[in-house]
Batch of 3 targets.
Target 1
Amino acid sequence: MRSILLTLLVAVAFVAGCSRDAAPGADVAAGSDAAAAPVAEYDSLSYAQPEKVRIKDLALALAVDFDNRQLAGSATYQLDWVDPAARELVLDTRDLTIEKVVGERTDGRWEDLEHALADAHELLGSKLTIQAPRQPARIRVTYRTSPEASGLQWLTPAMTEGGEQPFMFSQSQQIHARSWVPLQDTPRVRFTYTAHVTAPQDAMVLMSADNDPQAARDGDYSFTMPQAIPSYLLAIAAGDLVFEPIGERSGVWAEPAMVGKAAAEFADTGKMIDVTEQLYGPYRWGRYDMLVLPPSFPYGGMENPRLSFITPTVIVGDKSLVSLIAHELAHSWSGNLVTFSTPKDQWLNEGITSYVENRIIEELYGEQLADMEAVIARDALRATIDDMEPQAQALAIRPDVRVEAGDPLTEVAYDKGAWFLHFLEERFGRENFDRFLRGYFDEFAFQSIPTTRFVEYAKQNLLAKYPGKATEAELDEWVYGTGIPASAPQVASPALQAVDAARTAWLEEGTLPDAGVTAAWTTQEWIHFLEGMPETLDQGQLAALDAAYEFTGTPNGEIAMRWYPLAVRSGYDRANDEIAVFLREIGRRKLIMPTYGELVKTPEGLALAREVFAQARPGYHPITTGSVEDTIEAAGQAPAE
Ligand code: BES
Ligand code: ZN
């Protein structure tokens, strides 16, 4: 069941929250802060009590120990005691060993503070309560992490590209920062940070901070992050990492064998920053670098400030998947600058970012690609939304409803969110809407806000300012309603319509699209070609596609994640060897879960899934392990060990 904790795939329990001060829900209810926080600001995933005291600055002193798969050291917090009556500091932790807690006295000396680490809660971890009756300006916790920390992955040299040095990296979003730093692990709290990190001399250490491209690799590193960030943006990585510049203010960090390919693939990053600045105002974080991780990175990308973490699976040689870079860069405005304040407001990050991503793609590569990506995203949303619980179909949950657990992130937050912004753009006009969004980023810069603030701001700065363009009821339906609103603007993609025609011709007449035509297809066209296929194909059809396009064994994960499930559903065993290779080599959840999901539906497939998982497991990230374990367990059998 650890996957519940790791993926936040949690049944959402709604507790009627008629009053702002509704009592905390039954068991998951986090800290005593639950009673005090307005329901709209209530974060069920954290024990923190920011109404009483807030971390303003964090100073980390850590040693990276590859042999013991451990970070060890201390975290010193500068505190803002908001409530004069507050007597304790409550922190989130998971699987940490707490060695010592001290507080700074007014005479500058440090004294021991009493503290208690509660039993671990399955989802939230262990609440650390520190007694601080004199409200010290600074508190320091000395601690070490567990080798199983959910927010860290430790790779042996064999799991890296170069094969010589070990590697480690963090993934803090959603609530995994607490597994490597004791923190108020809620996006409502923002803090600046510094870090002093020691590591073996040949390991380069990077953080979501002011990485110096020229830093000497000497095992001793110092970082400063002067902009206040929420805990989920705290990040660290260590390994055989080198830098290649892309432009004045951006570049790529990667293992030596990967860095050239990555810099070529992401060569347009500087232009992306320029374009986004023209649309939405200055990039406020100094440098924008990217760190290319090993293939076990469980996500496509993570918007760690100043240093996005990126999967190597988007490096396919033709720049066709760089919308991922546009996405992570866009988070520098939507997400990192203006941040969702509770787990039920995630669409504010991911939906607005997906919209901005699409605008960057349009500016840089033209409407045709932007429209193809919009159509693909909306098709995916349409395909899944009707099967979701009504509440999961809504972008956000009404402010008076208390949610007791995080909802899994689905296409709703991303694609319905982006669609909502396209709707506003269409109604108010691009120029007005661009001005609005830029104003929104300025108004709420470096703040964490709930959905209600966005809605209020939109009512004032769009609906009231340009009367007659959209109604409050329409706005309400987009934000809180289920399904896809009738007011959703439609987009046609002639390029994808041509793909539809080619697929139909093949299915009905057996004529495969001409090689001259498909040679010019981008990943998006191949995605659409495969997504429009019937549930299953016969063996002859699959073999014909393979002969023509070599889908089996494709190095493009976006194609593989669509081809292999179709092959499995159709009983096309010839793909099994390559399926096994794919599932062993890639740890990015989005790419591999659809294939696992199809495999477990038959006894033979389940056997293959178990066998492959047993081999792949040591190389998977804990987040991916959790998801695969869940899928195999749900199929009715215990996972192979
Ligand atoms: N911030 C997300 C990743 C994330 C979200 C991690 C929630 C944990 C919890 C990141 O920006 C993201 O959306 N990544 C996508 C890529 C994107 C192009 C849709 C991914 O990893 O697939
Ligand atoms: Zn995102």
Target 2
Amino acid sequence: MHRIPQMTVGGSALPTTAAFDVIDPATGEPFAQAPDCTPDQLDRAMTAAAEAFRTWRRDDDARRDCLRKAADALEGAVDTLAPLLTAEQGKPLKDAREEVGNSVAWLRYYADLDLPREIVQDDERGYAEVLHRPLGVVAAITPWNYPLILAMWKIAPALRAGNTMVLKPSPHTPLATLALGELFQQVLPPGVLNVVSGRDPLGALMTAHPVPRKISFTGSTATGRQVARSAADDIKRLTLELGGNDPAVVLDDADPQEIADLLFWGAFTNNGQLCLAVKRVYAPESLYDDLVEALAERARTVRVDTGTAEGALLGPLNNRAQFDRVSELVADALHHGATAAAGGAPLDRPGYFYAPTILSGLSDGTRIVDEEQFGPALPVIAYRDLDDAVERANSGDHGLTASVWSPDLDRAAEVATRLDAGQVAVNVHGLGVRPDLPFGGHKQSGLGVENGTWGLHGYTDLQVLTRLAKS
Ligand code: NAD
């Protein structure tokens, strides 16, 4: 067993009074423990954050400075954080290192971001300015697929805007986030970032708690609904980053071999456990067989192994429930007449390994097409009429990201902007995930956006300052 990492409250470690097991997805066995935060300990975290807010909100330059120091500290800790992330999440070590690197980039982006004053009037009649005021304590809750970067999408803008935070990672992946809290004890004033861990009910305690003025939540749409209900009682501000069922629409002039690599990785990055992964492909009948084969060829040859194995490109699924869900959705598709052009079953080894799977011969109305699979199984659906494909791509309750694939860039862009999603892309999927562009879902994929100035303003309330001119 690894050492139990501590929760960070008020700038120091909070002694662990109860703990729960953390499972290694590559073996299915417990390999570490994490603290199980009690309601009393959560109160202490909230109080520490509220006290820190009094001074943290005042000095923007000091905040920028702290974020820069945090970025340096994080960059220097990649050799300890990345292996922890791989151990608890399952992803290959190079991907874990990249996640740490991206987290550093987000901190630096927000530290360097210039926020111009918004003066609407300054003349002989008077003065009017729109200010962005920090909210107070933010309760931040994250999922298990990208624990560090999704936490950083919240930490960097919320802190830069002058808020303080109580952060809770998923019980499946608490360790790297707890370690991040310990690391930042050296660079942030006490109470600015508090990190607690616990099972799902701790999340519900946080959203119902009277102290936070905002909840920033990333996770499933089902949990997002509960979070929104809980926030309604005292009108907490809310950002929800929820699930997706993201379509890729291939046009009839595309070359299957040309697009196969990027399309494959658009779907299988992080083993498909990515909110914005391609979750269904619509392909014209004329290209259908060639595209299925090009994708299947990549699925059959990609190296799946433990995250620490040299050359592994995909690891195991993160947890038993997700492994069971992917297994169930693929079995359901096969039962209803689909063909597995690649994969179609778990790998015969311990842990939550599943063979990268390409499914053909199925259509809308099959569960794996209509629901978010969040795993390494991609349905390819044939279409005859493009308008019909666009309508099917827009069906359902999700609208996170989408892509269109064609050498005719204008035509592809025209089709892309007919898709109902927060980000659309041409000949690539997910290119818009950058610190300086807004990311958020349409329909039931979310509420509000993260990243860029848009994301930062989500951690503020507007305040209008007016005065009459001197007479
Ligand atoms: P989840 O909803 O089960 O859990 C997310 C977090 O919420 C965890 O920390 C969990 O402990 C906590 N939680 C559980 N019940 C709660 C409650 N009642 N109140 C408050 N918090 C509660 O999601 P997951 O399985 O960890 O993550 C997978 C989902 O996240 C997928 O649907 C995926 O699409 C989505 N996701 C979305 C984005 C995005 O940016 N849109 C990014 C990553 C993942």
Target 3
Amino acid sequence: GYGHDLGVTTLGPVTETAQTERSLILVKPDGFRRGLTGEVIRRIEAKGYTLAALAVVTPTREQLAAHYAEHEGKPFYEPLLEFMSSGPVAAVVIEGQECIKGFRSLAGATKPTEAAPGTIRGDLGRKWAGTVDENIVHGSDSPESAAREIATREPAARSGRSRSPPVPSGPSGALHTGGACGAVWWCVVSKPGHALGCCM
Ligand code: DAT
Ligand code: MG
């Protein structure tokens, strides 16, 4: 079995500029089961994004509840959590200028039937029986989502503890790094004086 959670333990500061983004990519249980992890990572690397962290892990319901908070109450929420906890996923933190939007473009539309050829979902996905759309990959949809989703993969989040970074000043969307929390941390300023993020 997959007893070893390599986790995302220490992510250093981003390697490019203050505007460099990080996004959380998941090769979902369907993609992992089908052996498509390498193909997804190949496309990410071919596009020019960097792999900042990589782990194989079966998501817990707690992680998924935090990860998919925006979908709570929707008809597909329960099937979505059931599907996403059905087996291992490859969790990849990628890095690069505009990589959040860029990976969404690589992934294609949510429904594999509608996703354009050339995209991951368009080339490799299809509609299956079942309530939830199984579409091979997840990619963060905003800097705020990326910060929250990457935090769900932190050792502190997995053990139920949480650590907050100091709130820096700065423009909305700014990515900050620093040496607080006894480790490197990063966070995204969602509005001046208000930050979402976590210690790394
Ligand atoms: P995306 O993964 O493209 O960001 P999302 O965040 O709106 O899409 O939804 C999360 C996942 O939930 C999505 O990848 C597949 C599933 N899903 C979304 N809308 C759905 C729907 N109307 N019916 C079934 N499954 C759906
Ligand atoms: Mg989404």
